[in-house]
Amino acid sequence: MKHGKYEVQDVFFGTPHSRTGCLYIVSAMTVNGSMKLTFHPASPIVSEETNAKFADAFIQLLDKASRATDLASSESENFLSELKIPEGSLSIAAAILGVVGVAIHAGAWSEFFSNLVEMKANVADPKDFWDAFNFWIFFAVGHPLLQPILWISDVLHGSPGPLLFDLVPASFLMANILFIGATAWSKEVS
User: Fold this and answer.
1) pTM over 0.90
2) What tens digit of pLDDT does each residue of 31-75 get?
3) In Å, what is the CA distance from 131 to each residue of 111, 112, 117, 125?
4) Among 4, 44, 66, 189, which residue is least crowded by beta carbons within 10 Å?
5) Is residue 76 part of a domain?
């Protein structure tokens, strides 16, 4: 993959963007038509032997999937060539449906922009309008980023056991201490 004077020849690290954590993280990226996978073992929480067994089973699964994909792709290429679907037609269909989706909600878009215009007209100092507008954008963008915090809050309030200092369930506190200890003990982190 090349852009200007820069070229990516290989990728050695990737990270998933899932909302919740998982024990074995695998991330994928394609570079120059080749798929690059990064496997992150759950060490030291899981033993090296268990990690190796999982990695071997994962490679076997990928090998089976790639053979099945090769067979399926050759069959689908034959099927698509018989259908004579023009190249780019899926993108055109998606663009048309996107325009239709925006048009269906044209009233809501119109109301949104008219509210912005009215809000700007009723503010004496334009800086006050832009401060409020920027805060709204920050909230709209930041809300999805807060999902992990909201998830851990649900875990906190749903944890069993007695409350310590009338604040934190004992099981939640112990789980945090164990996790922080395992992270600090890990050779990969330090």
Assistant:
1) no
2) 777 777 777 777 777 888 888 888 888 888 888 877 766 555 555
3) 21, 18, 15, 10
4) 4
5) no
Cβ atoms within 10 A of the Cβ of 182, count? 14
In this structure, the number of other CB atoms found within 10 A of the CB of residue 172 comes to: 19
- The verdict on residue 4 lying in a domain is no
Query: Is residue 132 domain-resident?
Result: yes
Domain that holds residue 111: 107-143
Total domain count for the chain?
2
Q: Is residue 175 part of a domain?
A: yes
Q: Are strands 6-7 and 2-3 parallel, antiparallel or unpaired?
A: antiparallel
Structure tokens belonging to residue 87: 């190249």
Say how many CA atoms lie within 13 Å of 33 toward its Cβ: 0
User: How many whole angstroms separate alpha carbon 126 and alpha carbon 32?
Assistant: 48
Q: Are residues 175 and 154 in the same domain?
A: yes
